[in-house]
Amino acid sequence: MIAPLTVEATPYPFLLDPESTALLIIDMQRDFLEPGGFGAALGNDVSLLQAVVPPLRRVLSAARAAGLPVIHTREGHRPDLSDCPPSKLARGNLPSGIGSLGPKGRIMVRGEYGHDIVDELAPLEGEVVLDKPGKGSFHATDLELMLRNRGIDSLVVTGVTTEVCVHTTVREANDRGFECLVLEDCVGSYFPEFHEVGLRMIAAQGGIFGWVTSSPVLLTALAALEGEA
Ligand code: C5J
C-alpha cells in the first residue's frame, strides 16, 4: 500500500492516493487543436490550445510511469449523427459545422482523422478511449461505471476547453462524489479570460468543485513514488 501524496494546490493541499486516482485527458483532438476542425469552424484561434500539449505530455508520461490509469475522451458523433441533438447540430448557424466535410474529414464524426487525438498524446494500448456525444464526460457514457469498477475516486483533470468540456466534466464528477484536481497549465481555452475565471470558479468557496494546481507541482509529488514498489 502506497501512502497518499500531498500535492500543494488551491484552495488547500490535495491528498492524492495513486491507487485510487486516474488521469483524465479531455478532448485533445485535432478537431479542437488544429486548423480545419470544429474549433476553427466556430471562429476560434486554435493555436491557443497548443500550449497545453508539452506540459500535458510530461504529465501523461509521469502518470504512466506511476501506474495511474489514463482515460482519454473524445467529443463527437456517430457517422449518421443519430446521437447529436438537433439543437447542437443547428447551434451557431455554421456554414460548415458538425458532420460537414472539412480538410481533416467530417467534422466531429467518429472514425475521422480530425476526430482523433493529436499524435503527441496518442493513447497507448490498454488505455481507455471514451467517446462522448456531449460536453460532459459522464453524460451518455459508461465513465462512472468504469471508475467505480476500478476503485477510482479521484481524477487529475486535463484537456480542453477549460470552461466547456473540462468544466462540465468537473461539475459532473463533483456531483457524483469524485474529487478533481485540475492542472492549470494542462487545460486550455480559446478565451484566456474564461480559462482564468473558470479555474477560479473551481477552487473558490473552499473548493466548491475541486482543486487547482500546476503540472510542475504534480510532477514533483509524483516523483516521490519513484523507487516505491
Ligand atoms: C467544445 C470542448 N468547446 N471539448 N468542446 O465545444 O470543450
What does the model show?
β8, α6 and β9 form a beta-alpha-beta unit. Helix content is 32%, strand content 21%. The strands form 3 sheets. The protein has a 6-stranded parallel beta sheet, sandwiched between helices. It is of the alpha/beta class and 229 residues long. α3 runs parallel beside α8 and α6 packs parallel to α7. The structure holds dicarbonimidic diamide (C5J). Dicarbonimidic diamide binds next to α6.
Could you outline the blueprint of secondary structure elements for this entry?
Layout: E1 5-7, E2 14-16, E3 21-26, H1 30-33, H2 38-41, H3 53-66, E4 70-75, H4 86-90, E5 101-102, E6 105-106, E7 128-132, H5 143-149, E8 154-160, H6 162-175, E9 179-188, H7 192-207, E10 211-213, H8 215-223
Parallel strand pairs: 3-4, 3-8, 4-7, 8-9, 9-10
Antiparallel strand pairs: 1-2, 5-6
Helix pairs in contact: 3-8, 6-7
Bound molecules: dicarbonimidic diamide.
Dicarbonimidic diamide binds next to helix 6.
How would you sum up this structure in a few lines?
The chain is an alpha/beta fold.
Shape field: globular
Helix content: 25-40%
Strand content: 15-25%
Mean pLDDT: 96
Describe the largest sheet.
6 strands, parallel
Q: What's the number of extended β-strand segments?
A: 10
Order of helices and strands: EEEHHHEHEEEHEHEHEH
Low-confidence stretches: none
List of distinct ligands in this structure: dicarbonimidic diamide
Compute the separation of the termini in Å. 9 Å
What is the radius of gyration?
Answer: 17 Å
Decide which structural class fits the backbone: alpha/beta
Strand order of the largest sheet: 7-4-3-8-9-10
Number of helices: 8
